[in-house]
Amino acid sequence: MSHDRLRETFDQWAQKGDAERMEASHGITIAQVMPKLELKAGDTVLDLGCGNGWATRQLAQAAPGVQAIGIDVAPEMIAKAEELHSYTIRARYDVGTFEALEFADEHFSRAFSMEAMYYAVDLDKSLAELFRVLKPGGRVDIVIDFYAERPGTKVWADHTGVDMHYLSIAEWQAAFEKAGFGSFETERVVDPAGPGDESAFEANEWTPDWQTKVDTHAAGALWMRATKS
Ligand SMILES: C[S@@+](CC[C@H](N)C(=O)[O-])C[C@H]1O[C@@H](n2cnc3c(N)ncnc32)[C@H](O)[C@@H]1O
User: Fold this and answer.
1) 168: burial class by Cβ within 10 Å (0-12, 13-18, 19+)?
2) I need a labelling partner for 227 at 20 to 30 A (CA). Which of 91, 185, 186, 209 fits?
3) Any ligand 1 atom below 6 A from CB of 37
């Protein structure tokens, strides 16, 4: 998988309105996570794979005096983020890749990512880069919907047209530890509204039947937290 392929794919997603669709669906998950991030004045936060920047802006507003920077490989996503930007918010958006972060060592006190890290072209290199740009004691919060303990999602990889890392929690932990992170903990984030209404369910290639929808909902999103000790 190349960055060109990712760029082409996610530029197309941006053009067909998927940035807004993701903001709506991922925003429901992050509504439960954001209040628990405990960002504080002076934090500098990196948002990896920021899409249209909705979470970058929320991070920048999570406490007075927070500065947030979103990066994304897809220029069309960054263009959307800039369109939606408000100059009352300390946020910025750059085209860039996880594998070569264009920031100095120890630039950020915090990092965040929603539904993006499993697209890394080189996951080990991406986590090593993340470790490099975090200050000692810096924390990363990564939330993903696609992981092996949520088997109904495995089929997603057949439909995106790009490579995706379908890892178990133990494999994610091993990858974080290999990059140098000293602590790793997880939490599941389940939508309290439930899986929806069975009578309104329509099968599709992503969710072939109602039971898959129920099981996938019950597994929840995976929130991983790691610290650079
Ligand atoms: C599923 S979208 C999620 C976007 C946003 N975080 C959200 O929740 O709406 C994944 C994003 O990660 C970006 N991305 C994927 N692989 C990347 C990489 N290796 N480097 C930088 N960005 C990447 C994509 O361009 C895309 O915008």
Assistant:
1) exposed
2) 91
3) no
Give the phi and the psi of residue 147 in degrees, each rounded to 5: -160, 160
Atom 4 (ligand 1) nearest CA: 51
The mean pLDDT value of the chain amounts to 97
d(CA 142, CA 48): 9
Note the pLDDT of residue 24: 95
Cα 110 to Cα 56: distance, rounded to the nearest angstrom:
12
Q: How many whole angstroms separate alpha carbon 24 and alpha carbon 139?
A: 26
| CA 199–ligand 1 middle distance (angstroms) | 33
Q: Which CATH class is domain 3-227?
A: alpha beta
Residue ranges per structural domain of the chain: 3-227
CA of 159 to the centre of ligand 1 (A): 16
For residue 145 and ligand 1, the question of a CB distance below 6 A is answered with no
How big, in percent rounded to 5, are the helix, strand and coil portions of the chain? 40, 20, 35
pLDDT of residue 34: 97
Atom 10 of ligand 1, residue of closest alpha carbon: 116
CA distance 60 to 193: 27
Reported as a single tens digit per residue, the pLDDT across 6-61 is 999 999 999 999 999 999 999 999 999 999 999 999 999 999 999 999 999 999 99
The answer on pLDDT for 83 being more than 80 is yes
Two structure tokens written together for 120: 């890394």
Residue 72 Cβ contacting ligand 1 at under 6 Å: yes
